Amino acid sequence: MSQQITYRRVYEETSAQDGRRVLVDRVWPRGVRKEDAHLDEWLREVAPSTELRKWYGHEPGRFTEFRRRYLAELGDTEHRQAADRLRDLASHDRLTLLTASKDVDHSQAAVLADWLSGRR
Fold first, then answer.
1. Domain ranges within the chain, ordered by starting residue
2. Which are the contacts of 101, defined by CB distance < 8 A and separation ≥ 6?
3. Which Pfam families match (predicted)?
4. CB–CB of 110/104 below 8 Å?
5. Which of 3, 41, 53, 97 has its CA 20 to 30 A from that of 25?
6. For 34-67, what is each residue's pLDDT tens digit?
7. Please, what sign has the CA dihedral across residues 83, 9, 33, 51?
8. Distances (CA, A) of 81 to 41, 84, 104
9. What is this structure's pTM?
10. Measured at the alpha carbon of residue 28, what is the angle toward residues 26 and 30, in degrees to the nearest 5?
């Protein structure tokens, strides 16, 4: 796996260091035009389920449990193909996972970056 997996907000400027840019949110970010996002892919299927996302509500106190539940979801049939695609991208190029979340360190992008890097 590539050790060059990063994550950040989709609203930030693009960088030459980004490599492949993949949006990992289920819902398209507000105020971002598709042609301005400079994405290589949008893997909405790798995002947490709607139920998990609503339960979590981006409350940092729930992050540990969110992370546990989300990692379990990544093995589900619904997420498996997108998770495999993300693993494939990470094995070949630099990869930047993008999210609209204001607190990126407590987001699915952070969980995915750790997961892809082998840090559970």
1. 5-116
2. 9, 25, 58, 107, 108, 109
3. DUF488-N3i
4. yes
5. 3
6. 888 899 999 999 999 999 999 999 999 999 999 9
7. positive
8. 14, 5, 24
9. 0.91
10. 135
